Give the backbone structure.
Amino acid sequence: MCLLLAGLQFTRPKTLAATGHLDVQPGQTGAVLTLSDGSKIVLDSMGNGLVKKQDGAIIEIKNGQVQYVSDPGNAADALYNTMTTARGRQYQLVLADGTKVWLNAASSIKYPVAFSGKERNVTVSGEAYFEVSKNPHQPFTVTVNNGATTVQVLGTHFNINAYADEPAITTTLLEGRVKISTGSESKLLKVGQQAQTKAEQQQLTLRQAQICMQPLPGKIVIFRLPIPICQPLCGK
């Protein structure tokens, strides 16, 4: 078995030969923030402080993470920003509603600078772990790979693996409940379950996941997966 970790640090366990695990070093903190006007900000070496003021939000860096603070007095039309990580990089993001996102390597998330509508919608490619702020009056929806799969939640903790070179999109639920949809098929995911979707086949399957929490620096969520699935992920 291999341990795939998603959380504040995407670290890997030690040697496959000696322990049955894969040996990959932790990724470094770094990302590029693309603003709604197309301008780009490299976050790798930026310290704490103000990053940008946009209509409806103030963007800051605090303790190595980007945080959005709502600024309703200056709200205008919805503006969308995108955070992107390269291979070997990862970053933490706090959205305007307080939702926390850990973005893994070679991944991206597109989101509004402020959530002003009836729903909270973001788009993800690659891999991200979410801790969604609860708001039953404003459901949270993650769209994956240009609409191939959607995950609908009210407030929950879950991980999405949607790398383009993986055979399926995998969603793992740690807390709460989510609804997974692909094509015309939808299913409710319970705590401890994984959903796998294959958009080209409009196929959705559920399976029990082996999940445990390990008290390492920061929050680490460990998913236990077969080695053939882990090997390509560990190269990200």
Residues 79 and 112 are 5 Å apart (CA to CA). The radius of gyration is 17 Å. Confidence is low (pLDDT under 50) at residues 1-25, 213-235.
